[in-house]
Amino acid sequence: MRLTKSILIAAVACGSAFSQATPAGSDWLMDGADVFRTAWQKNETILNPQNVKNMQILWKLQLDNVPQQMHSLFPPMILNNVRTSSGNKQIAIVQGISDNLYAIDAVEGKILWKKHWDYPTPSNVRLNNDDPLCPEGALAAPIIGPVGPDGRRPLWALAGDGRLHKLNPADGEELAQPVQFIGANAKAYALNIFDNVLFTTTAQGCHGNPNKMWALKLDDPTHTVMSATPKSGGLWGRSGAAIDSNGVAWAPTGDGRYEKETETYGNGLIGAKVVGNELKIVDYFIPSNWSWLQKRDLDFQVTPAIFKYKGRELMVTASKECRVYLMDVKNAGGDDHQTPLDRTPLICNEEVNFAAAGIWGSMATWEDAQGTRWVLTPFWGPSHPKFKVPVSNGPVTKGGIAAFKVEEKNGKLQLTPAWLSRDMDQAEPPVIANGVVFAIASGENTFQAYPDLGLRDSSKMRIAASTHATFYALDGQTGKELYSSGNQVKSWVHFGELAVANGRVYMGTYDSILYCFGLPGTK
């Protein structure tokens, strides 16, 4: 494998990847903000519900990443106070699907360094230039790991050939030899790390690779790869696995059957944990209507969010059916593995659309200053006419964000509907910071079936029919629109997510432009 590196704007020093004398500031170290995938920036102090109406595009940067099928840029990682030869900087680490990794000065919007991985395509890989399900390239969002024994805080990135790289965020230098983690051109999802074990998931059997959850002990000199399989259509939660405080990694299992006797866990959720040198499935949840979900292609494919509430550790997830499920991670689904603590009514998808409606991506959760625990879900398509909320922000026909409060009533936990956002053209997973919910209307054409053509999931057709993304800031208490980018963003987003830190919110679009939103004069 050949690696190439370009220092494009500023030369940065080889040295400590992260200053230990970090001043006040916030980071965004991984997809979904943390190992629990809450999507909650707890340390934001600049943006708030009173001032976000003044947000604007602070900068936008055209990157040379080449989109593959529907994919382009992945959500940035934000590191505060990275020591470089030109001083300490706030850096955004952005991965592009065409095996590019960029470090960007988050204040100036300039590239500091770029890494590109170049490798031969294996002979057994057959590339389909019109298949959105199995693009080639680097698909798993990278992660900033904890400080290691050497005092460095490394960046972990998974190249399209399946090799795991340990890098210095300050300059992109390799800190160790790459390790073969998964197969080439597997469809991998966002990396996660718990107790020095790195996780990813794969889906859809792309290019002959199995659908599994994968784990690797980062301090194992033998680099033994561990895996667990639900024997299903794939673990394609947008943000990979969420990990609870006991080290159990939870991931949705996609389309498939449920057979307890053969340990087949399709259309549900598995929890896997490293035991010795094995990754073992230790718990699972299967909805009672899994067979109907399978028949209608309404996969469980939403990365859960995990949180504490009144001394318990809870988890929420969803599927294309458009319901949210609440569970306790100590006993997901109860004794029969099919009984959640609560299940919401249908939020959307009255017409049972498998492609252009339902809940897609990942969940979000936060706690406000009054101690109220909130759960947020994005959804596509019209809201269900029977789904009622105390606060509505207008008719929803294309998608939106639904908010719930976690409450205890009569000794039982429940998800109580709280508000619906304004209409959004295919809402993507939100993030939360300082009482503000930030969200994207992707503008993507998500249709996969047509009256005159039947089933046809074509990248070319969908790309041509997509429009533009819109960035929103919403009041976390009511869902009221506080800011909209309107028509300023010219391209759209596929499976896009946001990152927020230090008064800035970042969004990448299909045309490989990275946008930075914030308040005028923000430094």
Briefly characterize the structure.
The chain is 2% helix and 37% strand.
Descriptive keywords:
523 residues; mainly beta; Methanol Dehydrogenase, Chain A; five-stranded antiparallel sheet; five-stranded mixed sheet; 37% strand; globular; disordered N terminus
Under the CATH scheme, which architecture would be assigned?
A: 8 Propeller
Q: Order of strands in the sheet with the most strands?
A: 1-7-6-5-4
Q: Which segments are poorly predicted (pLDDT under 50) over 5 or more consecutive residues?
A: 1-23
Main sheet properties:
5 strands, antiparallel
SS content category: mainly beta
| Content of β-strand | 35-45%
Give the terminus-to-terminus CA distance: 40 Å
CATH topology: Methanol Dehydrogenase, Chain A
Indicate the topology:
Blueprint: E1 2-6, E2 40-41, E3 56-62, E4 77-84, E5 87-96, E6 100-105, E7 110-118, E8 143-144, E9 155-158, E10 163-167, E11 179-180, E12 192-194, E13 197-201, E14 213-217, E15 225-228, E16 242-243, E17 249-252, E18 258-259, E19 264-265, E20 269-275, E21 278-285, H1 290-295, E22 302-303, E23 305-309, E24 312-318, E25 324-328, E26 342-343, E27 361-362, E28 364-367, E29 373-380, E30 391-392, E31 399-409, E32 412-420, E33 431-433, E34 436-441, E35 449-450, E36 454-455, H2 459-465, E37 470-475, E38 481-484, E39 499-501, E40 504-508, E41 513-518
Parallel strand pairs: 2-33, 22-27, 30-32
Antiparallel strand pairs: 1-7, 3-41, 4-5, 5-6, 6-7, 8-9, 9-10, 10-11, 12-13, 13-14, 14-15, 16-17, 17-20, 18-19, 20-21, 23-24, 24-25, 25-26, 28-29, 29-31, 31-32, 33-34, 34-37, 35-36, 37-38, 39-40, 40-41
